[in-house]
Each structure stands twice: as C-alpha cells, then as structure tokens.
Design a protein that fits this description.
Shape of chain B: globular
Largest sheet of chain B: 3 strands, antiparallel
Distance between the termini of chain A: 43 Å
CATH class of chain B: Mainly Alpha
Radius of gyration of chain B: 22 Å
CATH architecture of chain B: Orthogonal Bundle
Structural class of chain A: mainly alpha
Number of domains of chain A: 1
Number of helices of chain A: 13
Order of helices and strands of chain B: EEEHHHHHEEHHHHHHEEEHHH
Oligomer: heterodimer
Number of domains of chain B: 1
Largest interface: A-B, 28 and 33 residues
Order of helices and strands of chain A: HHHHHHHHHHHHH
Strand content of chain A: under 5%
Helix content of chain A: over 70%
Structural class of chain B: alpha+beta
Shape of chain A: globular
Strand order of the largest sheet of chain B: 1-2-3
Radius of gyration of chain A: 19 Å
Helix content of chain B: 40-55%
Strand content of chain B: 5-15%
CATH superfamily of chain B: Cytochrome-c3 Hydrogenase, chain B
Largest sheet of chain A: none
Chain lengths: 308, 393
C-alpha cells in the first residue's frame, strides 16, 4: 500500500494521465468558447489530442547554436513542474494526494517553472524572435507573479494556513470569498491569464510581431510538451482560484461547475480586449494589480488583528 | 571586448515570410530593447511584370490583366485604365455606365475598408474585431458577386462602359445589405473610439503631422487622417463623381486612431453614395463602341483607390496595343511614412503602424536594379526597353 499509492498518484490520478487528459479537455473548452465568442465554429472535440499526437510524432529539430541538452530537457522540466503541482491541489474536489504546511508556496513556484523554462528556452536559441520573446516572457513573469501571489494570500490569511487543503476546507461552508474579497478574485483571475500568456497578455508570443516568441525554434516533441504543460497549468490554476474564491471544492460536480464557470469568464476576457504591449502589461500589474492586492491584504490583516 | 568596437545592432527581420505579413515584403527593424531605432524596407518579391505585359496585349486584354494588379482594389485599376483609354479614343461613355462604375467602386471601397479594419485589429491582437468585421464583409462580397458574378476580380468594366446593369431587384438587395452594414459600422465606430485597450494601442501611435504628410507625399486615408485635404473624387471628379459628389473626410490627429476614424467615416460616405446612385441611376445605354486601334497620344488618369490616389500613365502609338502603361499605386507613396514613423516606437507597435497605411505589397513591386560593380544607374528609355525584352524573352 505504501509503495503502490505514490505510483498511482504520479502516473494516473491526480497527476499523470488524468491531469493530462483533463488538460486537453479544458484546452478544447477554452478554444471552443473563444471561437464561439468570436463568432467562429471552433475546433472539434478531439482537436487538442490530435494536435498533441501530431506534434509528438514529428521530428524534433535541434537548431544550430543551442545547447542541445538544455534544449531537450527544458520542455520536460516544464511539464514535470506542472504535473508535480497537480499533486498538491484538490483536483476533482478530492483531497490532494500530498499535503503539508506551506504547500501553497511550493505549488506557486512549481507553476512558475513553466515560464522560467520558456524564458530559458528562448534565451538558449540564437533566433532573434526567441530572444525577444524570452525577454518579454520573463518581464511578464516579474510583473504578474507578485500580484497573483498576493491575491492568493488573501484567502490563506483568512484561513490562517498556508496549506491548500486547509484553505479549501475553510472556504467550504462559509460565504464565498469572491464576495468578501472581490478585488483579490479579479487580480487572481487576471494573474492566471498572465501566467498562461492568454490574450490580452500574450505579448510574449505575439504572432504578428515575434512569430511564436520564445518557442519559435521548437518543433515536434518539445513544442508538444510545452503545450500540454500549459494545459495542465490551466487546470491547476483554475482549481486553485475556484477552491480559494468560489467557496471551495467539495466534490467532482462542484469542481466541474466552478472551474468551467471560471473558464467561461477567462474565455470572455480573452476575446474582449486588444493585446497589451509588454510595457502596458507591466504598468497594469504594478500600478494597479499589485496596489489593489496590497490594499486588500492590509484590510484583511487589520480586520483579523481587530478580531483576534 | 574591444572598446573601439562599435556597439552591435540587434536587427529583427520581419519577412519575407512572417505571420504578420499577408504578402511578402522584407523589413529590418534595428531595436534597442523594445524601442525601434531604425527601419528599412525591401520590396520586390512579387514583381510580376504586368506593366511590361500590357505592351504585348491589346487594350481589351489589358483591362483584365490590369485588374489583377491588386486583389482588393481590382475594379479601380480597370476603371483608371478604361477612363484613360476612353479619353485617348475620344469617346463619351454613357452616364449610366459611369454611375455603375462608381457604384462598384464604392462597394469595393466598403469591402476594402472592412477588410483593413479586420487586418489592423488582428495586427494589434484584437481577433474578435477581426472575426466580426470579416463576417460582415461577406455581406458586401455577396452583393458584389450578385452584381458582377465575381467576388474578387469583378470585371465590371469594358472599354467604353460596363457590362453589368443594375435592375430593381439587385438594387433592393444592395440597399438591404447596405442598411445592415451601416448598423454594424456604427458599432465598430463605437468600438474603435471607446474601447480602452484598443485605444491604448492606437492613440498617439504612429502620429504623422500635417507637415510630415505633405513632405512624405502620403496619399489617401493615411494623409487625410493627418488633415491633408486630398481626395481625387473631390479634387478632380471622374466617372460618376461629377454627378454624385462625395464628402471629404479628414481628421487632424494623424495617429492610428484617427486613421480608423477616417476610414470608418468614409464607409458612411460610401453607404450614402451607394444609396444615392441607386435612387438616381440615369437611364440609357451601359456601353458604347470604342475603336480597336487607339489614336496616337498620351494621357494620365487619376482615380481614388481605397488606399489613396491611383495614377495611370498611358501612351498609345496608334496600334491596338499600348506603347507604355505606367502605374503608380497608393501603397508605394505611403511606404516612406511608415519607415519614418516607425523610429522611436515600440516593437509591439510595428505591425499596427505597418498595417495602418493599408499596405498592398504586390501592387507596388517594381523593377529593382541592383547596382553591381558601380555601373551607371541612369538608364535611357531604350535601355529599359531592351532590358525588359531580354528579361521576359
């Protein structure tokens, strides 16, 4: 029992195959929703899977001038980081596979590995589009990371714990924190979009300027792994925000409804705005996002201090 | 390492193959971080030798060849050529034909401006506006198909008139489509003037002052957005425009936002003009006979394409083939403004500044003579002619 459980947790549920499959499903829902908002038909249900298989089957081309080991290892590291993060969040509303005090911070760092890997991947190649893309990806990392963290700290302070499962349990049965901390919710959901480089925060991969940004030189397996890694991050990010702000995740049905509603909101935001320039993104986060999140945090701390 | 070594430039190449470009062109932006320090353009990837090709075909064939210079403003090329040749031949085209020419030209302007609205929004990463404006553009494409039988190269012109007539049923279809488009265009006007994220990408970006517009010889909506009062339809009315005058639309800001406003306001002018033409279509014939051999002479013909002034020079030598046809397309006049405005802006603004002039690459590719071993750059007409014959033998 002691040896079989970790194997299941890593290979099948909640990490491993299950999270990969749900990543593809959520990518499909996201693409379909954006397409419908834009008055398009959108992809068929198996399109993300077909894309993944196609990429995995293709030749992986290693361009001149890169450090080959790094070039091959970075997509794997990015996906591994995202999959590991899945072990600490209440996927399907069930208890996380592993849990310890402070796992919230660890999860957030694991999620940031993706952006770091993308930045390194871009800096590793000689391609000029990649270098610009990598600069932008890392600039964006520095801008959204702090507000996103602050936004997730609000619920953590209310629950008095740094443990995701404790916060999840705390959130259930209380007034939803989207009502008590609306600013935190907005900052968290927009921060998640910045993390995933979704429009309008997609300047690190703005196709009309720098082709595919940091991943321009990637093809085949590497590109496929980066894509599936981002899908996994999408699921984990939605789970975190839903667990913290939408009254916790108690069961699979709860999980599905709440994360899909969040996806509906992010898809709407994706189709509403023109792409922000990287300087506009940084300005938005530091001038508005971080300040709002800080103000809310201060209020929370003072309120808690008064009550205690 | 060497302190005397000049600082290396970081040059970002865009094109000839790039997702931002729908047609091949090559741009090199020297950037410092995100700021563009220098910009150069190199065209000529799709030079097709059409000007030369006209000399080997007769006037009727040339009409269809010249229509293929541009896939978006095809009708206006044929109109410019037909007007010039008719002037040389000394024939008077019936007013009904001129009105129908104008009608198709305005429908084409509607389709071109809606297309540009989508492309420019896409360059700025606003795909929703792109999808919606192109969906609505289908309405005017359907109208053009119903009127002329073709969606792109309409072939509405023939020498001495037009070959399509407008009956009551077609007129009603057009009116219906235009009513729908007008409603949608009001919505787009609201979007581009009030959406904050979109204005963040267009307001005070690529600002061209009135003086710059004059000095750089900008034409069309690009110049009109900087307050230049120039529109061939108003300054030198041709075809049906003397009978159906249009309003001149200008803005003073000169930035990308102003170009959006100018083009969308021109859409309203076009809608109004289309309605007027349909209501007051003069009766009569739609074409006259024109001699096969055009008398010797030369002429110029100027029309207002959706992108600006289109200029044709036609010289005939008394045969059924032109001696020389020279085309100057509006995009060619606007390139200089892009290269000057690009400097000092951010890299992220480049696609929108590029798209802001509504560039059309294929129509402005000309013969490029690369100066090898310092031989003379000055060519006489005979040299050019010989080169052309050698090149296309």
């Amino acid at each position: 029992m002691n040896t079989i459980f970790p194997v299941i947790a890593i290979l099948f549920f909640p990490s491993g195959l299950f999270i990969l499959a749900s990543g593809l499903v959520y990518e499909f829902v996201d693409r379909k929703l954006v397409a419908r908002y834009q008055n398009r038909i959108g992809p068929r249900w198996f399109q993300p899977l077909a894309d993944l298989f196609k990429l995995l089957a293709k030749e992986e081309f290693i361009p001149k001038g890169v450090q080959p080991g790094l070039f091959v290892a970075l997509p794997v590291a990015a996906l591994a980081g995202a999959l590991t993060a899945a072990l600490y969040v209440p996927i399907l509303g069930l208890r996380p596979a592993y849990s310890f005090s402070g796992d919230l911070i660890v999860t957030l760092y694991l999620l940031s590995m993706m952006t770091l890997c993308i930045g390194l991947a871009g800096a590793n190649t000689m391609d000029r589009f990649s270098v610009v893309g990598a600069t932008r990806a890392l600039t964006q990392l520095f801008s959204y990371e702090a507000p996103f963290l602050l936004a997730l700290l609000g619920p953590a302070i209310m629950a008095g714990s740094w443990q995701i499962s404790t916060i999840n349990t705390y959130a259930q049965g209380r007034l939803w924190m989207i009502v008590t901390q609306p600013i935190g919710f907005v900052v968290a959901i927009v921060g998640l979009m910045g993390k995933l480089e979704l429009p309008p925060f997609d300047s690190p991969e703005a196709e009309t300027e720098i082709v595919a940004g940091a991943l321009t030189e990637y093809s085949g397996r590497g590109l496929g792994l980066f894509h599936i890694g981002r899908d996994v991050e999408l699921v984990i990010g939605l789970t975190l925000v839903a667990a913290f702000y939408l009254g916790g995740l108690a069961n699979p049905l709860d999980f599905l409804i709440k994360t899909l509603v969040l996806l509906l909101i992010t898809a709407g935001l994706q189709s509403l705005f023109a792409r922000l320039r990287i300087d506009q993104t940084v300005g938005l986060w530091w001038r508005i996002g971080a300040m709002l999140a800080l103000a809310q945090l201060l209020v929370l701390i003072i309120l808690r201090g008064l009550r205690l | 390492m060497n302190p005397q070594h000049p600082p290396e430039k970081f040059i970002l190449p865009i094109g000839p193959q790039h997702p931002a470009l729908k047609e091949p062109g090559h741009f090199e932006f020297t950037i410092d971080g995100e700021i563009v320090k220098d910009a150069t353009v190199r065209l000529g990837y799709v030079h097709r030798g059409i000007e030369k090709g006209t000399e080997a075909r007769n006037y009727n064939q040339d009409l269809y060849l010249l229509e293929r210079i541009c896939g978006i403003c095809s009708h206006v090329h044929a109109t410019a050529f037909a007007l010039g040749v008719e002037k040389l031949a000394g024939v008077t085209v019936p007013p009904r034909a001129q009105a129908i020419r104008t009608l198709v030209a305005e429908l084409e302007r509607v389709h071109s401006h809606l297309l540009w609205l989508g492309v420019c929004a896409h360059e700025g990463g606003f795909d929703t506006l792109f999808m919606y404006s192109w969906r609505d553009r289908e309405t005017v494409m359907d109208i053009l198909e119903g009127l002329t039988g073709n969606r792109v190269n309409y072939s509405a012109n023939i020498m001495g008139g037009v070959k399509v007539d407008v009956d009551d049923k077609t007129a009603d279809t057009i009116r219906h489509g235009i009513d729908y488009l007008e409603g949608r265009t009001h919505h787009y006007m609201k979007v581009v003037t009030t959406d904050e994220t979109f204005l963040g990408r267009t307001r005070d970006i690529g600002t061209m002052t009135y003086e710059q517009a004059i000095r750089l010889d900008a034409v069309g909506p690009t110049a009109r957005a900087s307050g230049v009062r120039a529109d061939v339809r108003v300054d030198a009315p041709y075809a049906g425009y003397p009978d159906f005058p249009v309003d001149l639309i200008t803005e003073t800001a000169g930035d990308l936002a102003a170009r959006f406003v100018v083009r969308i306001n021109e859409l309203f002018v076009s809608y109004q003009l289309i309605r007027t033409i349909l209501d007051k279509l003069p009766p009569g014939e739609i074409s006259v006979r024109i001699p096969r051999r055009i008398p010797e002479g030369e002429t110029i013909s100027r029309v207002e394409a959706p992108r600006g002034e289109l200029f044709y020079f036609i010289r005939s030598n008394g045969t059924d083939k032109p001696d020389r046809v020279k085309v100057r397309t509006p995009s060619l006049c606007n390139w200089a403004s892009v290269m000057e405005l690009a400097v000092g802006h951010k890299l992220a603004d480049m696609p929108m500044i590029l798209a802001g002039i509504d560039p059309c690459f294929s129509c402005n590719d000309r013969l490029i003579r690369v100066n090898r071993r310092g031989d003379s750059q000055l060519w006489s007409w005979e040299d050019l002619r010989r080169y052309g014959i050698e090149q296309y033998k």
